[in-house]
Amino acid sequence: MAKRVLAILLIGLLALSSCVALADTAEDRDAIIREKAKLTTKVERLTEEPVTLTLWADTKNNGAVGTLMEKLDDMEMLKAMEEKTGVRIECITPPVGEDETAFSLMLASGKYPDIIIGFHNYYAYSGDTAIEEGIIVNINDLLDYAPNYKAAMEASEFRTKSVITDEGNIPYIAMPIVADEPGLNVGGPIIRKDLLAKLGMDMPTTYDELHTFLTRCKEELGLKRPMALDSNGASKYDGLTAGFGFHLKNICTTHAFYMEDNKITYAPLTDGYYEYVSTMAQWYSEGLIDPDFASVVTFDDGVAMITSGECAYSTDHSGIVGMYNSVGKTLNPDFEFGIAPIPVRNAGDKVHIGSSSGATCYSAAAISTTCANPELAMRYIDQWFTDEGFMMANYGVEGVTYEMVDGMPTYTDFVMNNPDMDSVAILSAYATPVTWFSEYVGCRDISDATREVTGIWDEQNDSVGVIPGAVTLNSAEKETYGDLYSEISSYVEEMTVRFIMGLEPLENYPTFVEQLRALGAEEAIGAYQSAYDRYLSR
Amino acid sequence: MKPERILLNYKKNKVLYWMILPVITYVCIFNYLPMFGLTMAFQNYSLTGGIFGSKWIWFDNFKDFFQGLYFQRTLNNTLLISFYTLLFAFPAPIIFALMLNEVRHTGFKKIVQTVSYMPHFISMIVVVSLINDFTNSNGVIASIVATLGGTPRSYATDPASFRTVFVISEIWQQIGFNSIIYLAALSGISEELYEAAELDGAGRIAQLFHVTLPGIASTIIIMFILRCGALMTVNFEKILLMYSPATYETADVIQTYVYRIGIIKQKIGYSTAVGLFNSIISLGLIVLANNLSRKYTEVSMF
Lengths: 538, 302
Hints:
The complex is a heterodimer of chains A (538) and B (302). Chain A has helices at 2-14, 26-37, 76-85, 99-109, 119-122, 127-132, 147-153, 157-163, 193-199, 207-219, 271-285, 299-307, 321-331, 359-362, 374-383, 387-395, 413-416, 423-430, 448-460, 475-501, 509-518, 521-536, and strands at 51-56, 87-92, 115-117, 173-175, 187-192, 257-260, 263-266, 313-317, 337-339, 363-367, 402-405, 408-411.
């Protein structure tokens, strides 16, 4: 054993590149992982005296909080890192489903934790603004403390362009979720496969087929609420809206802008939006949509609704499907949710927007200005980008979550075939949640469900409509946008629900659009357009 | 007052002054000091710049609110919900207390009192979950409507039912607890008055109108004045938990709007301005109610 370790070390030392390569294919990715598994770069001890850093992270999409562990501090990865680096991480875990409120309250309190994960998801303005306002530090100044991260970041032009802002700042330590293409879809439509089989139907691919499926679920199977919808009338990860050509809500953005022919567009001003709203209104009146959808607000409400067995179709994160199934099976042994294709107008249509994200989207950490020792925080995060850190973050604990098979780390049955727990959730507890900082590549191989996801959703969605995460507003644009958008979005949210529920007749749609223009929707789009133009000429 | 008089006064009432000191400190720290923050209403407030570092825009926030989409609606909703609460939920505990007062069986009376207090002590979040369970399309109310031949629907997301659901649940929650003060007032009415009335030939109903009600009138008026001051402050937490975009039309009040815009959307200056507007109206209302009461009933707080 000792000899083998030595051999691996020697081979690792001989490797010339910094072993951060670009992965275009599955083989490339395997090669990277094999290289990393040799552990050329190790996690270092950073301090002799024990030091504590505080960290805030959301619990959205983290299936492990509340099931496998009580709070984020219980993560095995954090404990292992503490042992090796001497740095203790004290996590601030917001209550499940309360991320947004918890973040705003934290910001308002003026007491920031040392490291904030997912800052860009909740902060209303750009990273440049956050630096200007003195909330977070410019990573640029600290980059020398993080050689491993720096190498990973500079490994491709796409990455570099994604993390550096117009003003030359680096607000976040960010990594694309899968190597370099911004293309992995993590969420979308999900469907009760057992009901599909019971009805003897093929997988619905168009809106019409979906309509037939939902109608039959209602009439033949007596389901009371065949389809779930978010309380604001949107669907998670644009699962139901992408087919109408627009983006309304996904994980990456605080706004609902997207691109059409390189122009920034806002859905409620487009025809597709009217089509969506009128279709949903019709389905709602036919009783195909959960009549209580507008009051399903909390995470628990949503789980209860999906697992009640009365719902056959929803949109969600692929990682949560396993949990739905394990809960649903306790009531009905046949209960099985699986991934469904994104519905489109005509079979075979492509969609341009969905749950896939720009580079800074998925994993990004910020260091706050109130951090007493930003150098240490930076050096600590850098340890996650060493080979050893990479292995821990992606694969967890050897012998528990993975084993080495011919130099390739392989997930154990505990992760892959765990009857009680979803794979992604297990890795969130033993390795790292997908939203955290790290070069995250293992995700695609985690479970059958996930593999199926990449198959269906990735093929459909070419993601050209996604505004790159690195498009950032300058102060003037920020002011225009900030003043206008909050009112616009609450107006849209309310009106969408009202149209769908039939509380507002569809004849009033032109008035709605007029009101949006009066509220300054076009100026808000303009702010993003000029930021985008600047990004293109970077 | 001359200094020596003050000193004399202090020496005489030393204990009283020391007793009130903690209260004065409390009011200063928690009620007066935070008023400094109202300056945010006149600024384009930035979280990190603070009050000294933010841009002054004077009345722009107010102008935005008054000319905005939601001024009319939030004001209407606040006043209407308040008005309905005043109309139905204010007299309910009084009637309840009067009814309890007529009950002679002490054991039964105690059980009723205890049961009616209970909802007051249930956490708001639990109460709202109960309300949601009752009013959704699968809930008790929808089932009852269905068995009676009506078409069941979701009352939780129906803007037309929001106020009704809110006020009824408010009565259920508070009727027992709010009746305590009236019961206390009722027990203060001398038995001799009743005996005298009986001798004069007054029946139960006449006694109620001529002895009982005048006996607790001052309590009712004080409670009414206090309630008027709170006319603009409806039960904010409950609305926040109960409403959704579908019911904003009838449920969104000034305070929930302030919360959404200020805390969630981070427009702090603007939401402070809206909150300040709310407070000014409240102050006006309480002064008005107090003056009216002083004029007509000679009972007033100040």
